[in-house]
Amino acid sequence: MNAFSKTRPTTPSRAMPILATVLVALLLAAGCGGAEGQAARTGDKGLTVGYVGWDDSVAIANLTRTVMEEELGYDVELRRFDDPEAAILAAASGEIDTFQNVWMPENAGYIGEAHGERLLNPWLIGTTRSGLAAPSYMNVGSVDGMKKYADAPIISVEPGVDPCSKVAEAVAEQMPDRQTSYRDTPTMLSEVGRRYSDGDNFFFTAWSPHWMNQEFQFEYLVDPGDELGGATQPSRIQPVIHGTLEEEDPFALAFVDALQLSDYQVSGLELSIKEAKSPRKGVDAWLEDRDWLARSWIGAAKRQAGED
After folding, report:
1. Can you state the angle between helices 250-258 and 291-304, rounded to 10 degrees?
2. For residues 100 and 245, what is the distance between their CA atoms, to the nearest angstrom?
3. What is the pTM of this model?
4. Is residue 184 domain-shared with residue 260, that is, in the same domain?
5. Domain range for residue 52?
6. By CB neighbour count within 10 A (0-12 exposed, 13-18 middle, 19+ buried), where does 203 fall?
7. Position 7 pLDDT exceeds 80
8. For a designed S-S bond to 87, which of 74, 99, 128, 288 qualifies (C-beta 3.0 to 4.6 A apart)?
9. Domain total for the chain?
10. Do the Cβ atoms of 64 and 259 come closer than 8 Å?
11. Alpha-carbon span 170 to 159, nearest angstrom
């Protein structure tokens, strides 16, 4: 059973008397079937959503698909890209309708109004966070405090690997004497988990939103001395849409624009997907006791699109 199955209208039996069938059809046409009257929307509505392999991008894309398909009758196609630049260009060209993980200002150079794309409001409430971190049991709160553990290594993503590439690059440039292991993201997270479970002393690159923020207890290290060269500046995460979407499907645009999640909610959604080992199952599990949240997005989208 999916997260919304209890609210979806049932299909009349073939054996139902003709009169009853007609009555059900009339009720559906009047918007009486399903939550928010949205079951009258049929599968002729389509949306193509781009995403990249980052956990937050996978999470928001699959959340969008689940709610739009289960509650709004859309047919949503997810299309994966190697990096944000490729996904943004695909939205600009009309290959996809939206890509929801534009980190600003980092990705500002890929956005050009001449292509017809348009940025929407950030879906992440607040801003991202990135930097060096230490397990809470080490009692270190600043970059300068790392001196107490001179032999503790840094476990880092590789320089150039988003969304923490600037921190990794700063570590390589500013801390050449510190033992540092550079890994691809899955390998880095696996090593962090192992060292954390063993109670080792170590530092690592961390960012939020991400499931690590609920899986481990750790502290982001403040950097008052700017030893990382300003690499920890926050970002906004915004959707970009193809310019014609507003005319072709104003409700779909309004729904993408209405999505709002806190850092804690996104990290929890990512963790649910990780534990379920399936984006669809993870999203369904997360939505089981949060259908009110989906209802709020639908209501906001209806008001924005002038359907309420």
Report:
1. 130
2. 14
3. 0.83
4. no
5. 47-123+235-304
6. buried
7. no
8. 99
9. 2
10. yes
11. 9
The confidence band for 108, taking pLDDT boundaries of 50, 70 and 90, is: confident
> In percent, how much of the chain has pLDDT > 90?
70
Residue 19 has pLDDT above 90, yes or no: no
Task: Answer whether residue 112 is part of any domain.
Answer: yes
Helix (H, G, I), strand (E, B) or coil at 79: strand
Strand positions, DSSP E, 32-188: 45-51, 74-80, 98-104, 118-119, 129-135, 154-157, 180-183
Residue 143 gets which letter from DSSP?
S
* More confident: 62 or 224: 62
Location of structure tokens 């209806």: 302
Residue 21 lies in a domain: no
Cβ-based neighbour number of residue 144 at 10 Å = 14
Size of the chain, expressed as the number of residues it contains: 308
**First-last CA distance in the chain:** 29
